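Appendix B, Record 12. Input sequence as logged:
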Amino acid sequence: QVQLVESGGGLVQPGGSLRLSCAASEIIFSMYAMGWYRQAPGKQRELVAIVSGGSSIINYADSVKGRFTISRDNAKNTVYLQMNSLKPEDTAVYYCNAKKTLVNYWGQGTQVTVSS
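Logged structural output:
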């Protein structure tokens, strides 16, 4: 059974940093594009960042460019999201996603709260 397990969320002050991790199991990890999405209360889920299987293609939402960095370690079946200069508007549940043609898996989500 495919599992995506996120970790690293929590409460942080504005301007602080967090690093999210997502460990995947039961998939050939390098064949999947891996992404981070987020959903704030009352809003639709949105793409934050995505990285291709070999890390040659990376895209970010405009709202996080220059502050967030996505990376992956195919040897560890893990994708990361380094979040710096966090703002209150970054508060959301962050979800890990694994995607390839006709296949889409989601993690259970991890809460990130940015507040003083």
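The chain has no helices and eleven strands.
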